[in-house]
UniProtKB/TrEMBL annotation:
SUPFAM superfamilies assigned: Triosephosphate isomerase (TIM) (SSF51351)
Keywords from the UniProt entry: Cytoplasm, Gluconeogenesis, Glycolysis, Isomerase
UniProt subcellular location: Cytoplasm
The protein's name: Triosephosphate isomerase
Active-site feature positions: 95 (electrophile), 167 (proton acceptor)
HAMAP family, sorted: TIM_B (MF_00147_B)
Family classification: Belongs to the triosephosphate isomerase family.
């Protein structure tokens, strides 16, 4: 059985004070949740303070990005050990906004994922096609290339610390959600790829999240699909009430 995971990506929103208020509201609302794993990803500057609020609560801390090197002359970057130092247990890599605006390639995503796993943190690796790619029939080719690229040289043992997130680019922040059938088709395909590369056990244990305009109103339908194990939530994770409702989705 795969434990559901709901992750909130706060993107470039909220001051330290606002982040702390939101985190505190979630910690208060969700203190009794044990059946679903909960992760929030504030901006870098709020990680340390939010990490303190989440200590001894079921809410876990994620960073939205990291650098692949541990230290050195890499101006402006933040490493995995430094993120672990402020309480991060998870790091998101390969988000489509990073691929689109910051030129991140599958290779770079892979290098970062390996750095995260080397330090024992969990990598939430995002993949997803653009509308153009979907409409031109390249959906599965694109997803396969992103998954294979991101997981290169990652061992079967390390896969226990990998969470995948399927986020169709056309559904992120647009209000357009993939139907649960559309999402399930890709999730099942990704699980098939994992089966081919790592075997049945890893394929059946790896959690694959869906992301793209997830809201309290559509989470239950998505979660009813066999291969959808949780959600990566952007906009709706910025309101404690909505995010809590998503975490407490009806089964
Ligand atoms: C995201 O940022 O990963 C995301 C899915 O955003 P939204 O829920 O706003 O579409």
């Amino acid at each position: 059985m795969r434990k559901p995971l709901i992750a909130g990506n706060w993107k470039l929103h909220n001051t330290v004070e606002q982040s702390c208020q939101l985190a505190q509201a979630l910690v208060n609302d969700l203190s009794d949740v044990t059946e679903t794993e909960i992760v929030i990803a504030p901006v870098f500057t709020a990680l340390s303070e939010v990490g303190k609020i989440c200590t001894e609560s079921p809410v876990q801390l994620a960073a939205q990005n990291c650098h692949c090197m541990d230290d050195g002359a890499y101006t402006g970057e933040v490493s995995v050990p430094l993120l672990a130092d402020v309480g991060c247990s998870h790091i998101i890599v390969g988000h489509s906004e990073r691929r689109q605006y910051f030129g991140e390639t599958d290779h770079f995503v892979n290098v970062k994922a390996r750095a995260i796993l080397k330090h024992g943190l969990t990598a939430i690796i995002c993949v997803g096609e653009t509308l153009e790619q979907r409409e031109s029939g390249e959906l599965f080719e694109v997803i396969a290339a992103q998954i294979r690229g991101a997981l290169e040289e990652i061992t079967a043992e390390q896969m226990a610390q990998v969470v995948l997130a399927y986020e169709p680019v056309w559904a992120i922040g647009t209000g357009k959600t993939a139907t649960s059938e559309e999402a399930e088709e890709v999730h099942a395909y990704i699980r098939g790829l994992l089966h081919g590369s790592f075997g049945t056990d890893i394929a059946s244990q790896c959690r694959i999240l869906y992301g793209g305009s997830v809201k309290p109103g559509n989470i239950s339908e998505l979660m009813a699909e066999e291969d959808i194990d949780g959600a990566l939530v952007g906009g709706a994770s910025l309101k404690a009430e909505d995010f809590s409702a998503i975490v407490r989705f009806k089964k």
